[in-house]
Amino acid sequence: MSHNGLLEISNCQPVWQLLREVIMKRDHVDLTIALGLLLGAGLACNGLPVFQTQQTMPPPASPTPPAAQSATPDAENAKLLEKLSELEKKIDAQQKQSKSSPPPVIRSGGTNAWVNSPGDGFLALRSDPSSNGGYRVMQIPHGASVRVLSCQGFSQNIGGHTGRWCRVSYAGNTGWAFDAWLVY
Questions:
Q1: Tell me: the pLDDT tens digits for 70-97?
Q2: In order of start, what are the domains of the chain with their CATH numbers?
């Protein structure tokens, strides 16, 4: 912390790398949270003050002439705005998809589906219909064919994806999988 009570971030490269990893694994974080992280890091890393105390700051001695200002904050802001726009488009697409497509009907005896989880490369087959409870029975690889036996009657949002917990059979194992990462 500096003498005037403002947070100073001298090296933002690790912050951007961490944010990139969080956004690339967006199935583990809500995209609206990613937007907030991007905006917060952009503000902090571009030299805008983040107040930590109630201390008052003295007025600046003299404004910096435009010629002496670095173009780096503008370039960083442009990158942030571009990323923000991309994330907003992804959120809009997800919202349209969840509103426009009704859940698939599961026939008696089950329905075939394929795992579509390229980010992690697998879909977890779980002992209980919850990402927090129970345990992972196994990892079903991306692209594998599974048999969906039944699904819960309601949808929920996990990691920014809307879906239902479904009873699934794969390779002689039966458990629960979140169908947001299944293609029927």
A1: 557 888 888 888 888 888 887 777 666 6
A2: 13-56+71-100 (no CATH), 111-183 (2.30.30.40)
